[in-house]
Amino acid sequence: MSLSTGALETPGRGAGLADVFRSRFLLKLLVSKELKVRYRGSVLGLLWSYVKPGVQFIVFYIALGVFLGLEQSSRNPNGLPNYAIYLFSGIVLINFFTEALGNASRSIVGNGGLIKKIYLPRQLFPMASVWVSGVHFVPQILILIVACVLNGWRPGLLELAAAAAGFLIVALLATGLGLLFGAINVYFRDAENLVDMLLMIATWASPVLYSWVMVREQLGETVFNLYQLNPITVGVEAFHFAFWLPTTDGAEAIPPHLLSLWLSVGLAISAGILLLGQLVFRRLEGRFAQEL
């Protein structure tokens, strides 16, 4: 009696992100479960998606726009026009990234009880965290759009394409890093502390609160080009180009070669990190149940 091994697979390993696509219904259930668990017993519920970024925006706007003079005014003509929109367009994107990466990196350990009981594609858990962050991103971007329209925002196809590209770059980066640190965190819980430090740096390592011009003037062209290699930087600049720049008189310059070069570079780097995260995740996922 012969036994065919052609259809056998290594236990605990699937087809990677292809399993997520084939398990779309399970992904939907996990997203729904995360949202229900997160807001269980909460008075405001999903309204926290408005409150938290709103408070964050007010604090940064008063501290930087008013006290440090980044807002353009009659007393400070060298500030940024419509600094409130400039600031909020960066905040909504960086909030999506920090929430997605923070939750995705803890998703495997957080669902350890479920992983030890049944087998389902492990990639579903980090992906569900990214999708939940996307749900929270929607009301914030709607508020941004309303504010932009009230300030004369009339976007063209180029601006809309830039916004979509910026979001895609950051989403791919968050997913890739979420898979990477989510897998490593099962074996080394220090990964959570490393992610916390990265998230603390992320807001300041991209032009969310300040202008890219400051980086080039203070650090020079060479360092500025290295600064542009950060996909979050490119994503935030794309959002500024799409949402903030059309509300100004157009005198403000966008970073050199943003549309012709840096968007493609940012997309390539984010795609590469996604591939790396997927490879590491598939390499380590076979022993998740035992390690948890």
From TrEMBL:
Protein name: Transport permease protein
Organism of provenance: Arthrobacter pullicola
Similarity comment: Belongs to the ABC-2 integral membrane protein family.
InterPro entries linked: ABC2_TM, ABC2_TM_bact-type
Keywords: Cell inner membrane, Cell membrane, Membrane, Transmembrane, Transmembrane helix, Transport
Topology with respect to the bilayer: Multi-pass membrane protein
Spans traversing the lipid bilayer: 54-71, 83-104, 124-150, 162-188, 194-215, 227-247, 259-281
Location in the cell: Cell inner membrane; Cell membrane
Main location, first listed in the record: membrane
Domain ABC transmembrane type-2: 44-284
